[in-house]
Amino acid sequence: MTSTTETIQLRPIGVVRSPFQSTSGMPIQTVAAMDVQGRLEIHEEFAAGLRDIQGFEYLIVLTHLHQATEKLEVVPFMDTQSHGVFATRAPARPNRIGLSIVRLLSVDGSTLHFAGNDMLDGTPVLDIKPYVPELDVRRTDRIGWFRQGLERLPSTLSDDRMK
To answer: Cβ–Cβ contacts within 10 Å for residue 157, how many?
Structure first.
């Protein structure tokens, strides 16, 4: 049994290189940034973990949202009403863990070039996992408040509300 005050330490395996220098004005989901490219620069001590990664078209990238704050209730970018943070994909959340599904373009040593970039330059990378549709896709019609929020996605950019 673990305590709610127990500290869990994670170490970055690399860093995101991105054209986005500020959170304001960034795409809020990878699907809204399909053509925006970036790089994952993996630290040399973890480079062996990249073996065979070029065989995947998409990757799940877990990051530490180092510029976000921690909140339990937020007004998400795709809505105008407050929600509990766990019912959103807002970056302002406990532990500030980000999840991005990106398209792998190429591998150059310990650098992964990708498209679908919704990440800030300098974002610490915590983990990378292969995206496998048969394991990762679930069809559902029950998507809560997102049903009306999805129409805003193509034109919605990040602003300062998560600071």
So the answer is: 13
- Predicted confidence at residue 79, as pLDDT, reads 81
- Alpha-carbon span 90 to 96, nearest angstrom: 9
B/e letters for 124-137, b = 16+ CB within 10 Å, e = fewer, are bbbbbeebeeeeee
* CB-count burial class (<10 Å; 0-12, 13-18, 19+) for 67: middle
Give the tens place of pLDDT for each residue, 81-122. 999 999 888 888 899 999 999 999 999 999 999 999 989 999
Q: Indicate whether 139 pLDDT > 60.
A: yes
Burial of 13 (0-12, 13-18, 19+ CB in 10 A): buried
Q: How far, in Å, CA of 78 to CA of 18, rounded?
A: 23
C-alpha Rg value of the chain to the nearest Å: 16
Domain 14-132+142-153 class, CATH top level: mainly beta
Q: So where are the chain's domains? A: 14-132+142-153
Query: What gap in Å lies between CA 123 and CA 82, rounded to an integer?
Result: 26
